[in-house]
Write a structure and sequence with these properties.
The protein has 330 residues and is of the alpha/beta class. It contains 8 helices and 15 strands. The strands form 3 sheets. The chain has a 7-stranded mixed beta sheet. The protein has a 6-stranded mixed beta sheet with strand order 6-7-8-9-11-10. A two-stranded antiparallel ribbon has the order 1-2. β4, α4 and β5 form a beta-alpha-beta unit.
């Protein structure tokens, strides 16, 4: 079984250059630049963890290409020039059932980012367990706005990011059916409503699940400072919209789903470049496979990569009435 398509293996250096704002080469190797405070990488659904033989709760199959696939994407981020100052991880770091060993493997994946001085902000997905996560990522919930949740507000020079925790921990461990529950809870929902009322800067609202699935879409869309919403969960790049109001009072929010960070379907991450008047989010797709990589490789998989890699959406910062979004294919 090939870990990934040959282009992934042979073209990582050039792909990494494309993921950044430019890439200087010296002796054939990328030379890392400074961290850009206006460059943010958004990832989700790392889903890395223990091999099947060591799992307490069996997942049903082996994933031999993980975690190396995720590590390659980490190397692509580190090869960006300039490097991002912030990586937002939108949850589902665990392979399936939130085992502590999953997070031990995940810590190895993320360590090069933090060692490089990049801030990594984590939230939880439906396959995570908070206590086990914190054993391997101590302090990841520091400064949370809601006790018992990974809820953050992260500020950059041009925009703020509200990062929500949509995990409802399963009552029954080891069951995929038990991992389908989601929600913010009353305390986090009340905090979000109050925070949106006080917003005065362009704001992105982020969570593992799409905002319309969490019962707060109307409140998010009602805030004139919200310019966009980012989520994971579905393992593929996708753009959508939700809105509040009608006629001249309507406010439409673009919602963008992130690819998987190595497990299956679209394999990649989002690169968000923030400016004073707008932000552009570019999809970087390095591979596609489902449910596993295989040889021979279906030609349609390469077409899926070509379709989405480089796709860019723009979020226009308009805090007066409606936060408009314009789509562009670069």
């Amino acid at each position: 079984m090939d870990v990934t398509r040959s282009g992934f293996l042979k073209g990582m250096a050039s792909s990494a250059c494309l993921a950044g704002a430019g890439c200087r080469m010296a002796g054939g190797a990328p030379v890392p630049g400074a961290h850009d405070p206006n460059l943010v990488v958004v990832i989700s659904d790392v889903h890395t963890g223990l091999p099947w033989s060591k799992q307490q709760y069996r997942t049903g199959r082996e994933y031999p290409w993980m975690p190396e696939a995720a590590k390659r994407l980490v190397r692509a981020i580190l090869a960006m020039d300039p490097r991002p100052s912030l990586v937002l991880d939108l949850g589902d770091l665990s392979l399936a059932f939130g085992e502590e060993g999953d997070y031990e493997v995940g810590a190895e994946v993320f360590r090069p980012l933090t060692d490089a001085g990049i801030q990594v902000v984590h939230t939880m997905g439906n396959h995570d367990i908070r206590a086990n996560f914190l054993k391997c990522f101590p302090g990841a919930d520091a400064g949370t706005k809601v006790p018992g949740r990974f809820t953050h507000v992260v500020s950059t020079p041009h925009a703020d990011f509200i990062v929500l925790d949509s995990l409802q921990e399963p009552v029954r461990r080891g069951s995929y059916d038990a991992c389908t529950v989601k929600g913010l809870g009353k305390e986090q929902t009340d905090w979000l409503k109050a925070t949106l009322l006080e917003a005065k800067r362009p704001t992105f609202v982020c969570a593992h699940h799409a905002i319309p699935e969490l019962g707060v879409a109307r409140h998010v869309a009602r805030c004139p400072y919200v310019v966009g919403s980012l989520h994971g969960h579905n393992h593929h790049w996708a753009t959508d919209y939700f809105a509040d109001g009608y006629g001249e009072n309507a406010h439409t929010i673009r919602s963008v789903g992130m690819p998987s960070f190595g497990l299956d379907r679209d394999i990649g991450f989002g690169v968000l470049r923030l400016g004073a008047k707008s932000a552009k989010l570019t999809c970087r797709i390095f591979d596609y496979y489902f449910p596993t990589p295989r040889t021979p490789r279906p030609a349609s998989w390469d077409a899926f990569v070509r379709d989405n890699d480089g796709h860019t959406v723009e979020f226009v910062f308009d805090s007066l009435a409606d936060a408009r979004s314009v789509e562009d294919r670069s």
